Amino acid sequence: MNHSQDTGPGGMPEDRKLYIVDSINDLNKLNLCPAGSQHLFSLEEKIPDVGTNSGNGSHSLFFMGLIIVLIVSLALVSFVIFLIVQTGNKMDDVSRRLTAEAKDIGDLKRINSLIVKRLNQLDAEQN
Hints:
It is built from three helices and no strands. By secondary structure, the protein is mostly helical.
């Protein structure tokens, strides 16, 4: 009788059922016994190696690539925020300069009108 071919009423192989029962027992021991008082087997010791760990390298490579992409994205976003702040500061400076120059232009117009009035008065006195 081949043990891996035996299936129970639920259609599940007997080996798989035993593994599930062992796992449930391990969880019960973890909940009932204080830490360190019970030696539990790791999953690698219970499950025979059938080559399921072959994709772990590609998963770690994927996560490393994802982390690198996230770091680069963070750097780019930080740079864009820095540029926005700098542009805002420059716009404030230009606005202040324009306001100051408009005030200076107003003062020059007022002085010019005073000079023109004085020249007109002098011209009228001479005639």
